Amino acid sequence: MNKKTVFLDANILYSWNLNHLIMFFCDTGVGLIEPYWSEHVVEEAIKNICKNSPSENPENIKARFEKMNDVYDYANVEGYEGIDDVDGVDSKDQVVAKAAIFNECDFLVTNNLKHFKDAVKLSVKPKALTADSFLTAVAKKYEDKALEAVVLAWWHRKDFATFAFSDYLDMLKRKTNGQNLPKFINKIEEVISKKGKKPQEIATGITSMSNRRY
Amino acid sequence: MSVERIVNEFKIPTKDSLAERKPKILVLKKALSKSETEFDVDQDLLKLLRFMVDQASEGKKLSVIVETDLCSITDAAKIMGVTRPTVYKMIERGDILSVDYDGKNEVVPESIIAFMKRKEIAKKEALMKLRGIEDSLLDETKNLAHQDDSEEDFEEIDF
After folding, report:
1. A98-153 pLDDT per residue, tens
2. What are the residues whose beta carbons fall under 8 Å from the beta carbon of B57, sequence distance 6 or more?
3. Does the CB of B20 have a partner CB in chain A at under 8 Å?
4. pTM exceeds cut of 0.80
5. Which H/E stretch holds residue A94?
6. Is there a contact between B150 and A158 if contact means CB atoms under 8 Å apart?
7. Would an 8 Å CB–CB cutoff place B136 in contact with chain A?
8. Tell me, what's the ipTM?
9. Looking at the complex, does the CB of residue A20 fall below 8 Å from at least one CB of chain B?
């Protein structure tokens, strides 16, 4: 199993649901990816969360990102500021592209793909992808592990006992959720149907073998 | 026992003394088992010794390179599933050990294994640390991030 290194853009970190799911693809879950971000993208994510959710206490939001930095103590990319500008990348996204390139990441996951289309997307490393495409690619390669990651992400929700696994899949899939993952969830549903069991049965089977829930 | 020590302790037979190659090898094997510090000579080592004897008997030069058991920064990154700059950071922080070998920075594999074991043990603790983030999941009612509609051929992604 070849773990991939992934730089997460601010718009990925912005969504806690997506963030939470991705963390279960990392070492805290099935260990398929190694996440990276930078102070800049974290700040941008915090700024946007505060702007769009004024009821949230900014200190609490910061504290959550501090926890993530604490858990993934090598995730924060530094020292990229001095490198040359990347051609074809929007000026405000230069810092994102630079950090991902400097850190030699395999992928840059962003939902603002068009800002990188002419540059990073065409280069060998990192390849820029949306969260949906990236996770779909992971699921195509590692079907069972991807399914396990989704189940673990659902299982670690506070409301998992009252929130059916199929509803969780639906939530990740639907367009109204902002960071929707239609292709990825279709793939996961395909994996589930291959097993000939109901989603909830699959989820129960996986969680019964795991001792990871905190 | 290292190959280097074997070469030092047991003189490589000369061409003259190796008129008949096979019996001489057996003699060497016996000599090894009769030494003060008893050790077994496995088949691989015996093959290597035979090769060395052949080379010497033909008057060819023989170079003995000590196996370093070190790995490059790139290999260390692949093993741990992180980027190369992360490996340098790990060295800087003292999480893994490196040595200057032949002008290159090489990583001591044992330190990688130890680091990965520590990380595995810390997994549970890491999940505990992430606790609290889940509270936010329930509150996330809207998300204004832009979804890019551009088509991608993710079939071609080499993951």
Report:
1. 999 999 999 999 988 877 766 655 566 788 889 999 999 999 999 999 999 999 99
2. B13, B14, B15, B18, B21
3. no
4. no
5. helix A94-102
6. no
7. yes
8. 0.85
9. yes
